């Protein structure tokens, strides 16, 4: 049996990117992952496909597992000879009960490692524009559990001492006891005018902050219906939020955006939207697969020198083309003197990354744009190769043939609908989505097929953003109202158009 090992990993304060490099590596290598409700579920996409995942989340009103059961589960899974990663919100040792889990492993003679995480006690105030210390204002900060009821007979938190401190007070998990906490501090002499703030779901796209004073914050929280998970900050540093609030000013802050690209390609679009404050939900409606038969493809690849032009229409085409060249042990020298053309700057970059310089890139990134760009270059009788998807448009082929070119199509990859559950998509849409993005006709067509007509009303309140006119035309043919069309037919162009639309709101 393999030697067991357990990693107790701090997942950070909520945002997916705020996990440490070491913590991410522990997810990637784990055979079993136990995670709680404060750890971002998006982190699980970094796991091994075969890894066992167990939700041991504990909510204030519901415990899927007791702490003792979690401790025993760690031992049980480790004794199976597995690498176990225990993923905990924030830092394992800051009110995370990581110490209890580590002691259980020690007593069971199971080797373990502590991987610290960014604690919400510091990160969440920072995302709310509140530094926990600031020269001339606060030279210390104090982190206190807010989960303990201050009114109980033998409270372990010394509110009399806390009331006399000049530093910043940070209460974790204290929303349900906010009234008691504030009253206790004021009863022991803390000025009722001391600034106070609550930050809900800090560092995430759903972050919401309210501010007031020790005497008013309870009513403000009630009026704004602030719920757990939230952090309480009390001290003069709260005033700095007026100048330092940065996250909640991001253009897409609080907006939920559905990305329908392939799982492999979604990351670039998702990252750019997240940088603008958006909450991204990835639901791939398309996947790229290899053709079932490569005989015709390999024949063309072995005779590339006969072509005067090769036109690449997508990054996927570039990737599939060069991967197949490698499989049949043929290198780029076989391209010979063929002129290389690309639809779009991203496709151009993909070719340049392979050491291929592009001769022509159209001003408009469509088949029609390519035809306009090459009409003076491609001569009658020229042989043109089109590596492309199996369901690509006919327009480019027809246009080239009208020029007198001899066109050979190479369906180098195919697009299919990935295995998914319609109910998962329905649940996502029922929870309200502000924007739905389509980056190709296939993503739009497959999305509507997965959704089915009886659920079309679920997208009526979402704004539809498309990458260009061809995708827009497809969406409209499917009965979908398009609200945003990228001016530049690229991922960057799509993001800019969504951001620009948001900037115009309220004018």
UniProtKB/TrEMBL annotation:
<keyword id="KW-0949">S-adenosyl-L-methionine</keyword>
<dbReference type="InterPro" id="IPR003043">
    <property type="entry name" value="Uropor_MeTrfase_CS"/>
</dbReference>
<dbReference type="GO" id="GO:0019354">
    <property type="term" value="P:siroheme biosynthetic process"/>
</dbReference>
<dbReference type="InterPro" id="IPR050161">
    <property type="entry name" value="Siro_Cobalamin_biosynth"/>
</dbReference>
<dbReference type="GO" id="GO:0004852">
    <property type="term" value="F:uroporphyrinogen-III synthase activity"/>
</dbReference>
<dbReference type="InterPro" id="IPR036108">
    <property type="entry name" value="4pyrrol_syn_uPrphyn_synt_sf"/>
</dbReference>
<dbReference type="GO" id="GO:0004851">
    <property type="term" value="F:uroporphyrin-III C-methyltransferase activity"/>
</dbReference>
<feature type="domain" description="Tetrapyrrole methylase">
    <location>
        <begin position="6"/>
        <end position="217"/>
    </location>
</feature>
<dbReference type="InterPro" id="IPR003754">
    <property type="entry name" value="4pyrrol_synth_uPrphyn_synth"/>
</dbReference>
<comment type="similarity">
    <text>Belongs to the precorrin methyltransferase family.</text>
</comment>
<dbReference type="InterPro" id="IPR000878">
    <property type="entry name" value="4pyrrol_Mease"/>
</dbReference>
<dbReference type="InterPro" id="IPR014777">
    <property type="entry name" value="4pyrrole_Mease_sub1"/>
</dbReference>
<feature type="domain" description="Tetrapyrrole biosynthesis uroporphyrinogen III synthase">
    <location>
        <begin position="268"/>
        <end position="495"/>
    </location>
</feature>
<dbReference type="InterPro" id="IPR035996">
    <property type="entry name" value="4pyrrol_Methylase_sf"/>
</dbReference>
<keyword id="KW-0489">Methyltransferase</keyword>
<dbReference type="InterPro" id="IPR006366">
    <property type="entry name" value="CobA/CysG_C"/>
</dbReference>
<dbReference type="Pfam" id="PF02602">
    <property type="entry name" value="HEM4"/>
</dbReference>
<protein>
    <recommendedName>
        <fullName>uroporphyrinogen-III C-methyltransferase</fullName>
        <ecNumber>2.1.1.107</ecNumber>
    </recommendedName>
</protein>
<dbReference type="InterPro" id="IPR014776">
    <property type="entry name" value="4pyrrole_Mease_sub2"/>
</dbReference>
<keyword id="KW-0627">Porphyrin biosynthesis</keyword>
<keyword id="KW-0808">Transferase</keyword>
<dbReference type="Pfam" id="PF00590">
    <property type="entry name" value="TP_methylase"/>
</dbReference>
<dbReference type="GO" id="GO:0032259">
    <property type="term" value="P:methylation"/>
</dbReference>
